[in-house]
Amino acid sequence: MQTAVPMPPRSRLLPVRWRMPRPGRPALLATALGALLLAACGGAQNEGSTATAQGADRARALAVKAVGATDLPANRTEAARFLSQATFGPTSAEIDSLMTLGYAAWIDRQFTLPATSHRSYWEARDAAIRAADPTASAGQDQVWESFWRQAVNGEDQLRLRVAFALSQVFVISALDGNVGNQPRAMAAWLDMLGQQAFGNYRSTLESVALHPLMGFYLSHIRNQKADATTGRIPDQNFARESMQLFSIGVLKLNPDGTPTLVDGATVESYGPADVAGLSHVFTGFSYSCAVQNNSCFFNGVSGGVGDPDRFFKPMMAYPAFHSTEAKSFLGVTIPPQTVANPAASLRVALDTLAAHPNVGPFLGQQLIQRLVTSNPSPAYVRDVAAVFNDNGAGVRGDLKAVVRAILLHPEAKLASNRAGKLREPVLRLSAYLRALPHVSDTGNWRVGNTDNASTSLGQTPLRAPSVFNFYRPGYIAPGSLSAAAGMVAPEMQLLNESSVAGWVNFMRDNLNAGVGQNNGTVNGVVLNRRDLQRNWAPELALATQPEALVAALANQLLGGRISAALSTEAINAVGRITIPVLNAGGTNQAAIGTAKLNRVKSAVLLMVSSPEFLVQK
Question: Within 13 Å, how many C-alpha atoms sit on residue 214's CB side?
């Protein structure tokens, strides 16, 4: 029996009305909650530092890797903190594992776990859907099913979390119809990111550059050489973004991620001539095809037959469409004997980008932000960049070593009020679903599209509004406490009056009805309810004990990190929901059950709306 979560008592921790805000209402809600969150999150801002020799940086970083390599978490709260950074959310079982293995051994075990294929799942669902209805087929919904199925239940959590981070650096978006109309290839894109999560950056960059979905999104598939007759020049989209967003950034950086200054001014890392020169490299690449000819270049079909996997197989080189003029960029000129060879030109270009000194601090800082803290110190960035430059065995770009360095760095354990990051909506929902396990009625994890900010998450994986992701790494929230403290708050770019109220109302709805899309009949059973359902029996057993209920939920949802104020507020709120006394005839048992369930759901709602949950510390 589903019961509605009652309106909670007035609370200074949850200044929100239990209805959607009226149009035009002043954004007091967003301001209040935003200020509250930002008072609790952040990290050390770059104070400025003097660049040191890379050899010393590497030695320091390798020492950092050794420190704590055999450490066990001091307690379950510490274990939950680590798992908030390395997974889609702590679970009791994963905390037990970490407490036994220790940090380094847990990471090593994660490195060995195989990935589960999103594309294989999509294909299986497509076959089942077509078998039930030959006119139907799988679509984007089945991509989200696979994403949530793995995010919540996947054993290889570290790979999945890093792949999600990479999806927000190397961005494609299904909002572009050319991408969104290829859901099977979208599933394959997720597989590619999972394969590259523990690989080498240079290999990752190549896989991204040659993936047809990136070719669609940044328009370098079927990119042709210049034509003086028509005035055509090569498309420059991917050339520009491959530098700006995927490798070196717009400014020259010191090894610690701070901008290089010349006479007190920043220095651009590339210019228009570099974009133009690099754009010539990304010409002559198009669909994979059994027969390489002009027809294949334009539509992937030769003789009426096309490779069914051409939307995710690496693009092929077509020399007839490749620029043969000199290609100069970033101080490199591709030699004449190589210039007409698209594969050789690409190799020089990607080698040049991957070897640029900016890549370590530029990529390292973004991965730190996605996993650990929004404002890593220059020392943290420097140490991670040093491991990127040399993993200790002379290998550059080892992402496995980079991930290890990020998670084992002392600053990842920093407990100050400047540490941590705001949890983005996807990570909030995944943390909730992992902390309080739900069952999928269909087994398909039908969460669906969660774009709507006022009624859902305001964020769906692989549906960012632009190539700049859902938020910018350097976003500063105007008028916020974090801005006044000199901090960035990337995820705050998603916050506004609608999204703040939307999260609370979304979770209240989830607690009342379950999570995800509605099911009618499943395997002959009429359900008419949401796909993801929670058995509240463990919490109901504590419903008559407010202190015990709040403590148990704090351990599950907050890793035990609950303030005295929130604890008192939640205990009082739960206690004010009266549980009727069983009458002589036992006819009010249903009312008693309803009251107990309301206690549980109200306590959960207060937890998931609190700064302790919304801020990853």
Answer: 27
